[in-house]
């Protein structure tokens, strides 16, 4: 992999280094304030100064010396009492660096011992004013454990925060990519990742722009394919129109000589016509330019009128269950053609002498239309695929069992159903029934 | 022999139709664009066949201009098969019948005959029909709404007349189709709906009711 100046590698390296450094600095910086908070001697320091001054006043240098020595032994606190002019009032054995710090009255933290922090107090007695300079002891082993624990917690908290920021920084664009991919899979070919991802100067940004380029290409390929299908269908109409007239002329001139053959040509012509109708309907549904007018529709009435129309056909009887009053926002013509296609499909596949069951009921905020046949059903693995145009099931049906233009497959009818329901923000699915037969359910959002 | 004007840009198709229809007592004059159709349209012809997709002016434009010229002869539109019926509904502007193309020429001939038969003066017992504030003069084939004349195509007039004859009770779609268009109704045929839409636009939605499963009804 080529490492670019702005590559993910450098960004990751920067992130982790910065986060670790910050965490380390924080744990170091926290030690002194933390020690101040933990050290119980802090509050006592002025009181001890007072007592040292009193010892000096009552017993002179010797009493002061023994008090200070005692203090150092018992509390590990090293103090010196000075007079107002800054002259030490006694001497005490102690390491030279500590003495130096106390005499100078300055805590040079670079050279001085880290935890012997110097404190100054002015001590007022009845007779005089003294300076009390005192060095606090370093933490003991038990205190170190407490300190270490707190520092570990702080370190972990810092790293957790850094990881959180990092995940947001890295995770958000990846999530956007995933959403765009999911939308694409669901059929929204216009789905793209936003500029916030595609314009990033790293591998994720490159992935984002690559995704967008792929989506563009895919969309134009699909559009080309559909345009080709539509154009071919369109162009087929003129020769077909001429064919039909020529066929009738032949019929009249032959005086019934080739009636059977001519009937067959007629039948195939009708199948071609039906197929072209459906392809054109499908192409129009895919046309983003086509704007459909939506209005408030009583879906039950629409369903009933479609059932009535189709019930006149000879294939099978339709039984429409009583239904409630449900309204959806939709396009009358589109929904009519979707319902017609679903029911026609069921009529085509239901076994001879059986009914096609149709019902409508509300489910949550959707209206569900179920169409059930008593046919052979569809292999479970192909339940989604039957909604693709010209999908053929694995056991191809022979033209004898199929009727019309789409014999041998599902043709375009169910693809039209799917596009129409999607255009109404609904969805459609097929299920095999326990007792045999296929059930196709359309759900459409209810108005309001 | 009836003279028919046919406008379609597919010359071979026109020639075939011309040959076919000549065997059915029609003489076809073919033109190949919308402008020519407008110029040739006159009452010398018994009917006009108009294709929608034509160069220069499409069938809908030609239809509108022909009607504006005051030519009242029956016009049959050949709509593109697979075209959006809703679009045609929206553009409904006075054609007497619609046939999707490719079409069966027998069907074309039958529809032309139905249109021409209906165009003949009708002799009926009642010269006038009244339904609510709609009045029909059968002999003169004129309609009035609240005393104002309403322009109707001959098919629209027939649909309205059939409805008016049994105003107050429904007429099923099959009977309406037979009376107005001279053929039986098929579930997939929506040309009757187009005429109903046109009539509702002219007389108001509330006057023509849809009765589910029964058909259409003109209110009294």
The biggest beta sheet of chain B is recorded as:
5 strands, parallel
List the quaternary state of the chains.
Answer: heterodimer
Structure classification of chain A: alpha+beta
Q: What is the tally of beta strands of chain B? A: 11
Q: Which structural category do the helix and sheet elements of chain B fall into? A: alpha/beta
Radius of gyration of chain B: 17 Å
Distance from N terminus to C terminus of chain A (CA atoms, Å) equals 54 Å
Specify the number of helices of chain A: 11
Could you characterize the architecture of this molecule?
The complex is a heterodimer of chains A (448) and B (220). Chain A has 448 residues and is of the alpha+beta class. In chain A, 54% of the residues lie in helices and 14% in strands. Chain A contains 11 helices and 10 strands. In chain A, strand 2 (118-124) and strand 3 (129-135) form a beta hairpin. Chain A is rod-shaped and about 150 Å long. The model of chain A is unreliable at 396-409 (pLDDT under 50). Helix content of chain B is 38%, strand content 23%. Chain B has a 5-stranded parallel sheet, with helices on both faces. Chain B has a 4-stranded antiparallel sheet with strand order 6-7-8-9, covered by helices on one side. Chain B has a two-stranded antiparallel ribbon with strand order 10-11. Chain B is globular, with a radius of gyration of 17 Å. Chain A binds chain B through residues 233, 237-238, 240-246, 248-249, 252, 269, 273, 276-281, 284, 290, 292-293, 301, 304-305, 308-310, 312-313, 331-333, and chain B through 10, 12-13, 16-17, 19-20, 23, 80-86, 100-106, 187-188, 212-213.
């Amino acid at each position: 992999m080529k490492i670019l100046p702005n590559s993910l590698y450098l960004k990751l390296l920067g992130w982790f280094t910065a986060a670790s450094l910050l965490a380390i600095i924080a744990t170091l910086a926290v030690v002194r304030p933390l020690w101040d908070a933990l050290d119980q001697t802090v509050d006592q320091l002025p009181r001890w100064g007072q007592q040292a001054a009193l010892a000096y006043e009552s017993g002179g240098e010797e009493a002061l010396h023994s008090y200070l020595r005692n203090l150092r032994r018992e509390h590990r606190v090293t103090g010196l009492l000075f007079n107002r002019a800054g002259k030490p009032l006694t001497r005490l054995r102690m390491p030279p660096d500590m003495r130096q710090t106390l005499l100078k009255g300055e805590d040079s933290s670079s050279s001085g011992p880290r935890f012997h922090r110097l404190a100054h107090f002015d001590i007022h007695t009845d007779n005089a004013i003294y300076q009390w300079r005192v060095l606090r002891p370093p933490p003991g082993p038990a205190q170190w454990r407490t300190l270490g624990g707190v520092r570990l917690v702080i370190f972990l908290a810092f790293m957790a925060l850094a990881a959180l920021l990092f995940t947001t920084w890295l995770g958000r664009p990846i999530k956007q990519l995933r959403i765009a991919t999911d939308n694409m899979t669901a059929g929204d070919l216009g789905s793209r990742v936003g500029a916030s991802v595609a314009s990033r100067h790293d591998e994720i940004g490159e992935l984002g722009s690559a995704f967008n380029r792929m989506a563009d290409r895919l969309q134009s390929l699909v559009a080309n394919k559909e345009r080709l299908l539509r154009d071919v269908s369109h162009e087929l109409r003129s020769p077909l129109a001429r064919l039909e007239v020529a066929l009738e002329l032949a019929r009249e001139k032959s005086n019934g000589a080739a009636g059977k053959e001519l009937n067959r040509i007629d039948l195939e012509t009708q199948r071609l016509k039906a197929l072209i109708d459906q392809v054109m309907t499908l192409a129009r549904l895919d046309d983003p330019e086509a704007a459909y007018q939506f209005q408030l529709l009583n879906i039950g009435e629409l369903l009933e009128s479609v059932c009535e129309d189709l019930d006149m056909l000879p294939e099978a009887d339709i039984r429409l269950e009583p239904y409630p009053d449900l309204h959806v926002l939709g396009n009358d013509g589109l929904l009519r053609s979707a319902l017609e296609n679903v029911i026609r499909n069921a009529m085509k596949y239901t076994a001879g002498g059986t009914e096609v069951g149709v019902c409508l009921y509300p489910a949550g905020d959707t209206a569900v239309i179920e169409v059930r046949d008593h046919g052979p059903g569809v292999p479970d693995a192909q339940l989604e695929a039957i909604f693709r145009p010209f999908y053929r099931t694995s056991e191809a049906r022979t033209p004898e069992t199929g009727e019309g233009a789409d014999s041998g497959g599902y043709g375009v009818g169910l693809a039209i159903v799917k596009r129409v329901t999607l255009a109404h923000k609904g969805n459609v699915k097929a299920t095999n029934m326990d007792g045999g037969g296929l059930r196709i359910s359309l759900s459409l959002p209810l108005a309001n | 022999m009836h003279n028919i004007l046919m406008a379609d840009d597919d010359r071979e198709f026109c020639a075939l139709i011309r040959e076919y229809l000549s065997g059915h007592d029609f003489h076809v004059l073919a033109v190949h664009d919308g402008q020519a159709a407008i110029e040739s349209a006159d009452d010398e012809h018994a009917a006009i066949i108009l294709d929608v997709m034509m160069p220069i002016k499409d069938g809908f434009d030609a239809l509108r201009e022909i009607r504006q010229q005051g030519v009242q002869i029956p016009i049959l539109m050949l709509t593109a098969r697979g075209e959006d019926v809703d679009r045609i509904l929206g553009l409904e502007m006075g054609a007497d019948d619609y046939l999707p193309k490719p079409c069966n020429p027998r069907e074309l001939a039958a529809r032309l005959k139905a249109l021409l038969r209906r165009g003949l003066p009708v002799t009926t017992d009642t010269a006038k029909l009244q339904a609510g504030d709609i009045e029909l003069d059968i002999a003169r084939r004129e309609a009035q709404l609240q005393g104002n004349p309403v322009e109707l195509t001959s098919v629209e007039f027939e649909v309205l007349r059939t409805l008016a004859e049994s105003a107050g009770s429904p007429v099923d779609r099959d009977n309406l189709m037979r009376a107005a268009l001279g053929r039986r109704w098929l579930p997939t045929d929506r040309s009757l709906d187009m005429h109903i839409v046109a009539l509702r636009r002219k007389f108001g939605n509330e006057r023509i009711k849809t009765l589910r499963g029964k058909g259409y009804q003109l209110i009294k």
